[in-house]
Amino acid sequence: MTYYDFFTGRPTAEICQDLLGRALTFEGPQGKLGGYIVEAEAYLGTKDRAAHSYGGRRSQANEGLYCPGGSLYIYSQRQYFFFDVACQEAGDPQGVLVRAIEPVWGIEQMEANRGGKSGVLLTNGPGKMMQALGIDSRKWDLAKLEDSPFAIDLTEKKAAKEIIAAPRIGISQADPAWAKEKLRYYVAGNPYVSDMKKKDYDQGHGWAKV
């Protein structure tokens, strides 16, 4: 299956859930860094008041959302960078924000990239995740996944015991309906999910036993 096939042809919320448990990696000068996706948010395009493309807004800054499914939309807020993948056909600006990964590859280097942060603080948020991967620019914005140093494993994934649907984080309450839409999906009990409380940690990190 190609990235285009994976990221088109079905609802963006379904694509978002299907990403959970898949390996996200970045292969750069520091070697292979990454882990398993444990949290992601769906953004539904022009009708979604929380989406950067709401109402058909389009500029150089959010052009990645208008690219064909499987294209990267990397944006910045303050000093942080965020990893989105466009979903659906070109011109239908929907996408998925990967919020958190459970680190597996290159953990020591990722800790160094995060200034010595370790444990759940390493990658339990979208800005932290990109910092851990050593991303400090929008260089790969608009690139197709297959033409970038990023990779998402479409051949296999870890199975979650339970996937939770919850409201997205940091969404303006100006539109209560969209702020409360349960379009954030995460692996229940995984400690690397951005707002996971210690009391809710699962001993097996929320993964089903094989």
TrEMBL record:
SUPFAM superfamilies from the xrefs?
A: FMT C-terminal domain-like
Which Gene Ontology molecular-function terms are recorded?
alkylbase DNA N-glycosylase activity; DNA binding
Name the CDD domains for this protein: AAG
Which InterPro entries does this UniProt record tie to the protein?
Answer: Formyl_transferase-like_C_sf (IPR011034), MPG (IPR003180), MPG_sf (IPR036995)
Q: What is its EC number?
A: 3.2.2.-
Q: Which residues cross the membrane?
A: none
Q: Which residues form a coiled coil?
A: none
An example of a Pfam family matching this protein is: Pur_DNA_glyco
The Gene Ontology biological process terms listed for this entry are: base-excision repair
What keywords are assigned to this protein? DNA damage, DNA repair, Hydrolase
- Domain of life of the organism encoding this protein: Bacteria
Q: Secretion signal: which residues?
A: none
| NCBIfam families attached to this UniProt entry | 3mg (TIGR00567)
Q: Of which family is this protein a member?
A: Belongs to the DNA glycosylase MPG family.
Q: Output the PANTHER family linked to this UniProt entry.
A: DNA-3-METHYLADENINE GLYCOSYLASE
The name of this protein is: Putative 3-methyladenine DNA glycosylase
Instruction: Supply the source organism's classification.
Output: Bacteria, Bacillati, Bacillota, Bacilli, Lactobacillales
